[in-house]
Amino acid sequence: MYELKFNEDECLSCTTQDCLTRCQYMDIDRDTAKAEILKIAHGEDSFVLHDCVTCYACEEYCPVNNHPFYLIVEKQEELDVPPLPRPLIRRGIQTGIPFRGEPDIEEINGQALDMGVFSDLMYLIQGRLFEGLPVISQDPRKMFHYFCQLMYLHYGRTSVIKERLPGIIQTIAKHNVTEVICFHDECYGTYTSYCPAVGIDVPFKAVHLFEFLYNRLNELKDDINPINLKVAYQRPCSSRLSSDKHHFVRGIFELIGAENVEREYVDENALCCGGTIQGQRREGSRKRAADVQKRNIEDMKNAGAEVCVFNCPACYTTLGSMVAKNGIRPVFMSDLCRLAIGEKPAGWR
Amino acid sequence: MDSVYQALVDIVGQEHVSNRQEELFIYSYDLGTTEPHRPDYAVIPRTTEEIQEIVKLANKEKVPVVPLGGGLSLAGLAVPFRGGIALDLKRMDSILEVNEKARYAVVECGVSQGQLTSYLERNFPHLTHSEPGAPPTATIAGNVAIHGQGDLAQPYGFNSDMVNGLEIVLPTGEVCKFGSCSIGSGWYTQHPLPDVGLFLGWSGTTGIITKVSIRLFPSKKIRGVGQFVVEDEELVPEIMYKLTHTQMTEDVIAFSQAIPPFASGLQHFTINIVADSEKELEFKHEIVWDDTLGEYIRSGAGGFLGFRSGLQRPQVSKTSDWRKGGGFEYVGAIMPVETYPECYRRGRDISERHDIPYTVLGRCIGAAHAMMFSWTYAFNRADPETIRQAREALHETDDLALELHGTIWKPGLYGQKLVMERLDPNTLNLMKKIKQMLDPNGIMNPGNWEVS
Amino acid sequence: MTLTDYKYGDVIHRCFRCGYCKFPINWMDVNNCPAYARFRMETYSCGGRLWLTRAWLEGEIEWSDHLADILYSCTACKNCEVKCPLSFNIDILNMMIAAKGEMVERGEVPSPVKEFLENIQRQGNPYGTSRAKRGEWMEGTGIEAYQGQEFLYYVGCVGSYDTRGQETARILGKVLQKAGVSFGVLGNDENCDGNEVKNLGEETLFEMLAEENVAQFQGLGVQKIVTLSPHSYNTMKNDYPGFNGEFEVSHYTQLLQGLIRDGGLDVSGGYNATVTYHDPCFLGRWNEEYNAPRAVLKSTPGVQLVEMARNKDGALCCGGGGGNFYIDLLGGSADSPARRRVREACETGANVLAVACPNCLTMLEDAVKAEGLEDKLAVKDIAEIVGEACGIK
Amino acid sequence: MDIIACIKRVPDTSEADFIKIDPAQRDIEKDRLAFKINNWDEYALEAAVQLKEKLGGTLTAITVGPEDWNEVLRRALAMGADNAIRIDRDVSADDAYTVAVILERVIQRLSYDLVLFGAQSEDFGSGQLGAMVAEMLGIPHATLVTVLEAEEGKVHTQRELEAGTLQSYTIELPALLTVHTGINQPRYISLRGIRSAMQKELQVMALDDPGLSPETLVPMVKLEKLELPPKGKEAELIAGAPEEAAERLAKILKDAGIF
Amino acid sequence: MSGILVVAEHRNRALANVSYQVLSKGRQLADQAQMELLAVVAGSDVDAYAKELAGWADRVLAVKSDRLEGLLAEPCQKIIAHLIRKIKPKITLMGHSSFAMDMAPSLSVELGIPLATDCIDIFWQNGDILVTRSIYNSKVNATYSFAQSETVLITGRVGEFSVEEGGRQGQIEEIEFDFEEESDYKKFEGYLEAEAGGVDITQAEVLVSVGRGIKDKKNLEMVEELARVLGGVVSCSRPVVDYGWLPSERQVGLSGKTVQPKLYLGLGISGAFQHVVGMKGASIIVAINKDAKAPIFSVANYGIVDDLLKVVPALVNKISELKGKTE
């Protein structure tokens, strides 16, 4: 019932084929790229469907916003080319099923922070940055009622997203929120990129966490003491859906006096945390993920990073302890901002 | 004045005996579904000598003695069915010796699993013991007394197979030692003297264990757990077989449960892998995940969920709370590994029939020589109906375990009856003789293993 | 009251009695619940108390002196809440307090609890000593009455009446004078803070105390409060806002930390000792302030800080919380938590056991005497250590 | 069983070492003192409440004193009394006899089975009142009661003698008992309980309600003066070698009538 | 003829100590006013008591009746009322005992005479009798006079008056007394003696109390001995209970018991606040402590700064010596 807005003509007229040629995990030349993307568009099998690590990056690379990644995932499902082994897919799909009662709907008129599925990370939203901001999805028992479902892109299952997402949006809308600040940029990407791409209505305005933090920091500017730390940012896959907000990363760093280290895997060239890669169905996935992680961390180290900043809890879970082992402190972006205004972040170890 | 009470006060002191309703209430309850029975006294001794005196008194007065450690058996093994003395042994909590070179520890009967774990971590970080899945308040002695297993069951077998020696207070009050310690040669082995081991698995009906020597094993610097998932339960036995073939795993468990939903209908493996270096770890990863399980990943039949460093204690008590009810009990049985699929399917049926979210688990013992398979039934402590349901499900499961050619582990009274019905009559007769010889007045944990 | 009327009637049965609540953070000992450590009967464990409470409310057991003693032996140290793996853990202490509250309303409390509460009703302190003597501790110190200074120095009952507490209260006053802090005290007009009253289940009395104190503070224009006792700190910081009493409350170690760091207090006189620090529950587990006292000690020259095996959120309570410094249901044995604690302190090789709470001070000092460790271990309040380091005799 | 408990309010002087006597030597200065229910009366009230809880009936608490004294009646109401009566009178110049006269007049007009008093008061400690009232009412009494059990029409009591000996009586009702500490554990009265007792009605009687007039109330024992007992501040130190000091102390103790 | 009448008590085959005390006081008052001292003793077998009393009294009235087996208040009240009516003594004096507390108030009402109880002093002033009472927790002394009356009834505080040598040979008169028909509205059921073993320190007149200074459990023996010669009981401060040297029922202080003995002899007790609140009500406090600055010295009446282990044996000897002289 929801259909992806994909325009084959855009691909035909595309001169760069950035979607696949810039892929960091497949080595594809421009001609092959064009041929394969068209095959995919026509519903034919392509090695791309098999080899894709589902890193979302092509969504950002596409110069005309033609949703190559959403297309790939739709076709993986259509052609039964699952990116993961079946038990993992089933497990993943079952994970999002709420099982601890219905949510308590409190009406909030105006702005609110949406924790999405990360209610157990409430400790990350303390202090003056979040003062007075109502929060929805505070209760871990109810968190799956706020789960944006976009994770199923990694599972090759857009059908699950389309089936569940409208209900989730309804639940959020019941809170009567006009502006939803998304704790996770996957939620933000869902409401601002995926929903328009497949035609799902979103009755509220989604706000990117970084934009919110940037604005709050400006309000608290007088209280900022530059943190003077060298920082590497671990860009999550979902941020590819909101590349227009990516500039806030640098904006925030400037405000708080963090030095954004010069490195190879930065911005558009960011590397996946490896979380989704290691379980993939193909031969050698575990090693491939380990290799990506190793390169990523080596790059941070070489650039002299003291801190690795995360926005995505999944990246944090996958990479956090690894970067720490390499002498780089892992920290969430909001915590780094709290540090700058003289607060003691809960997650700062 | 109650003369038994006064005599107990004389033995252990006023503060360590109670005949007040509060203590009698608490010690009447098992944490599972077993109906409570009030003891007449709760006693917390500190020494072997005190226990001797208590047992002698109990013989004289024909008062039952029900020893308990953590009191976490869940099968009602420390419920004072015939009243008497609830003997809480947790004050006997000294770690007496750790022999680093011969890798064993001698502990008093009240030493908890957590206490030994923590002691080894702080003082002998390269040694560990086989820690059961119970809460850390469970005791070492209580666990071997019921043939428990722990997280080293895959490489080394039952915890009770790791016993190097015991000190026992017999039901008649004498103290006996078993193993090399009995000839004063230290606590390093239970063999090769003539076997008089009549205490493990008897659930405290033949004597009170006061000291245990337990084997310790190498603890590597990196200890972690990897997870693997399959959808088809039929694959579990062969995967266990293949994993044990690698000799590179420490604990292999497969589980499936209705809640949380992600685990429903799937078979999850948790596989412990340990190493002293990244190099060793990567080598083992390759053998385990890539070489041994790779075929399932490639075929799409199995998925690797990642590896986490650090062993987390399973917090089983959380299971009790799925229904916001604070209670659960399980049937554990020692089963052939090949019965896993049947155990899972039939267990699910039983759960569903009794309206309880199913929870099953199979832990590999030895090189897949057997597994401990558990069927867990949660209940709501505040709702007697759910307790009844769980009790019924447990009984059906006892029947099932035997039907599938398994042997019930730490059976409650119902399971004991089933087992004894099937026991070889000559064995049963021998058990009867042993029990009569050791406990002529039948004071030790009466109700349990009563051969009629 | 029956179980159905009990506020936690729908959760109290959820305790499994798995026993995590007995442990410190590293499981080294099952004796981190002070009451269980003292008595070792399962009834005295956190789980035992919850089961007994439920049994009592359900009519399975009768109220008895013993039951009351068991409930009131809880020192509100919060170890159980920190260690319990289940989601209702945040309410464990509230469950206990509500059960105590029921005993209070029925009038069936242990006699020392009755005495404690009646003394507070009558004299505003648990000792029953006259209100007119509350300010005696400050005689000859030159400490001023509060009249709009920057800080209200709230001393609390133990600091005002207990001999040892008074010494500490005086020294802290002198330290603050020396640092040039603008402060005043309430003297005879000071009233009990109510922290223990709340934990003993006398809710209405607590409310009255909080309301009266808030009104008094506001009437005097108090904005910042520094407390001698973590108990006062806890209730003024966390409970008084519920009575419209929004004050900037600090424990004195927090104030001293800032003063030393900013050079406002010269501690160059130093204090030569190997010191181990005992975390008071109401500063530590209740308010997660583990750093300030340690920072003060570390910045005092000559102090060599060593840690006990159980520290911070795993620290063993001195046994004085929940009114037990007065009602003392846990005393009288080598297993008393205070005595266990001083033995543990001795094992570190420290010759000074530093505390930051007058209740801990008296409990642990008595325990040192009982253990015959006077030659090996001195119990000192951090205020005394700092006092010596800045030249106050 | 209908019970009457007679109670009074006393200053808490246990901790007050700053007591001052007014210049006329007639009273102590009370402005810095806290007040409370007389300790023994609390036990009497508890005993009354327990009997009421067990056997039913009513409990009436009575006090003779000025308005401040309402607070002890509130306490009694919070504890479980059904009625509370205060006879309004400044009792500072009264002796036990005059108060007994007043109480007798009030009590004889009420219906009762048992009258309870505290065995003595904390402030003056004369221990006379209960037995005087009993004699005036013409009913049997027992003082210093530490054990009390009631049944239809009678009470079984034990009264305390010296050195731990008890004297056991069975007394037919109506009777009057004065209650000693240790007979029970008086319950705690929560602030909530006291506050809700504020809502209950208190009966205040003037002296002429039971037909008395001030002129008829002449004390038989008259206060001449108050003074502070002579007392040295510090201990008198007995110096000398152990033998000498011991000898002197022994003499002091003997002179003090200790042995 | 008016005189002074002392009511003597007896139990367990002996006259009560307090009777000797008030007898001595009565003797003194009688001598001062040149009055006759009378003593009355009632019971089933009073010959021995009467003889003893004659050592002080000019006349002893011995009332003999089988009805007086238990020295009960009601029959005694009848006898004393009868005697007072007959003799019209200026003063009737008794010890402030449990017996007197039961009887004296009713007696005063029955006869319409003034009553002063628990007096710590009794003295003549301008021909009138005055008494001093200790009130407000022993913090204030109050002096009282009596309304005009033929007889005043006074009870004297136990232990307040010293026993003087009697040395007289008074007359003994046996008195017959007719009891009316016995009513059964108040039935005496018997005496219950204290259970052996259980010690109630709150009831003891003399407490020998030990603290940490006792150093070792074995030293308790000498303390027990001291308590024995003083006719008292051993109590203690908190640490001694902590050590398990004495049961908690012996503990004095905030968490122990509050005691108000006549003598509190503190041995090796420093006198912490928590302890002092439990014992400061004692009439006489004696402290023996090595530490001259121990706070107990500021609450004690008498102090010895020395090692208790040296003083206690000496004290036991001296007291035994002195007692030997009296007996």
Structure write-up:
- The complex is a heteropentamer of chains A (349), B (452), C (393), D (259) and E (327).
- Chain A contains 14 helices and eight strands.
- Chain A has 349 residues and is an alpha/beta fold.
- Chain A folds into three domains: 8-78, no CATH class; 110-208, 3-Layer(aba) Sandwich (Rossmann fold), CATH 3.40.50; 213-340, Rossmann fold, CATH 3.40.50.
- Chain A has a four-stranded parallel sheet with strand order 2-1-3-4.
- In chain A, strand 3, helix 9 (185-198) and strand 4 form a beta-alpha-beta unit.
- Chain A is globular and about 55 Å long.
- The mean pLDDT of chain A is 94.
- With 452 residues, chain B is of the alpha+beta class.
- Chain B folds into four domains: 3-88, Uridine Diphospho-n-acetylenolpyruvylglucosamine Reductase, domain 2 (2-Layer Sandwich); 95-218, Uridine Diphospho-n-acetylenolpyruvylglucosamine Reductase, domain 3 (2-Layer Sandwich); 222-309, Alpha-Beta Plaits (2-Layer Sandwich); 316-411, Alpha-Beta Plaits, CATH 3.30.70.
- Chain B has 13 helices and 19 strands.
- Chain B has an eight-stranded antiparallel sheet with strand order 15-12-14-13-17-18-16-19. A five-stranded antiparallel sheet of chain B has the order 5-6-10-8-9. In chain B, strands 1-2-4-3 form a four-stranded mixed sheet.
- In chain B, a hairpin with a 4-residue loop joins strand 5 and strand 6 (104-108).
- The longest helix of chain B has 20 residues, at 384-403.
- The model of chain B has no long low-confidence stretch (mean pLDDT 94).
- Chain D has 259 residues and is α/β, with parallel strands linked by helices.
- Chain D has one domain (3-216): HUPs (Rossmann fold).
- The chains are: A alpha/beta (349), B alpha+beta (452), C alpha/beta (393), D alpha/beta (259), E alpha/beta (327).
- Chain B binds chain C through residues 15-16, 18, 20-23, 25-27, 29, 31, 42, 44, 70-72, 88, 90-91, 93, 112, 114-115, 117-119, 121-122, 135-137, 315-318, 320-321, 324-328, 380-382, and chain C through 10-11, 13-20, 22-23, 26-30, 39-43, 48, 51-52, 55, 60-62, 64, 66-67, 70, 85-87, 309, 333.
